[in-house]
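Lab manual, section 2.4: Encoding a predicted structure.

Procedure: take the sequence of the chain (421 residues), apply the prediction step described in section 2.3, and record the output as structure tokens. A sample record is shown.
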Amino acid sequence: MVMTGARQVLIGGLPASAAAGIRPGWKNCSVSDLYDDHAQALRGTVKRPKGAFRWGRDNLGIGLYQARLARQEFHPDLETSPALNVVESGKHLLVACERGDLLAEVIASNLAFACGASFAVFPELAKSDRADWLEEIYALGQGGDVTERFSDLARRARSHLGQIDFTRYKGILFVTAGFPWGIAVPEVTNSHMYRYPDFGRAVIEGLRASQSSSRSARTALLIDPQTVEGSEIPAINRALLKNGTLTRIVRGQAATQTRVQYLLDLLPHDIIVLSSHAGDAPGERITYEYPDADGRGRRLVVDQALGIGYDASNGMFRVTEFHRFHSLDGVDWRDTAGKEVLPVGTAITTWNAMGGQMERRNFIVDRQPIPRVTGSMAIQLHDGVWLFASHGFAPESAPLFVNNSCWSWHELGSPRFQCNK
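Recorded output:
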């Protein structure tokens, strides 16, 4: 972050150990939990505010953006905030944030201000509706009247976004809780960022990386199992080489699950590009019956997908398991209200403590093949489907990951696929 060239840095609300770790390297840095201390540190660095901007404690992103544009001091001391959902600024970009997380709204507002963009908020989609709508998208892969079903979903999504006129802007960045709202606005170039869990860090990393063109992309990993026609990998490789980037291409038979996983886990890269097919993997629906740690008889139904890769260096197979709980004691796992009534208790911890497949097999009472394990999102590599399951990238590696695989945006861009630096 020192590369940003910030004139003044303010640190507050952090434990002393965290502040001590962040502080080194900054010329001017104020560490305090008191507002007056930070106000004093900013004297001579920023202009004094032109009065107070009064707002409520909700809809903070909109209020904060208006205050910054007006160069006024933000005071959230009203009982309620005005029902405003758009702040106009630049037409080159609109940052549109899904409500429901005030911290995310504030971060999105700050991002819009930094980019000179317009800012908007729209209603949060209920968690159950989000799950249903995403399932409708995945179900399109099973065929049928795809065009009509997709058009209907896009219409519902557009209706949910409200009266925002998206066509006024050249581009849109949706800050979303999980649904790809861009399908509702196909006429405008758009992209997405998750509002949780690493939205703030992702914004900071992006701002930092944009400050120095000399850093650029030093190393790149290009993965091309040659499962699709017209792969863009050669063109990307030429562009990166022209840029002075050291590229490693894993192509065809070399693009195995084991090799790709090792390269991601052990070697640092600035850019990772993957060109292949993706989709939820087939698997089994397995029913277990067992007593939990409290002595209560349980019936747990689990959907399981497997990824099996061969490691030629030691002659062993690398097996990756993906589990999705389907139901417990007859209650659907997605039924939040039903699970609140159901005593989940130690049912899951007991199942986990059983160990692997060999240890659990004595408790299996039924198993059926299923065409798709929801959420597994496997990527087709040369030797089979690859279930991404890294705990983290190589040390000091926070790469830009470009993945053109179909259906992959939601699961592979979700919180289970995060890079902690």
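Check your result against the sample. The longest strand covers residues 297-311.
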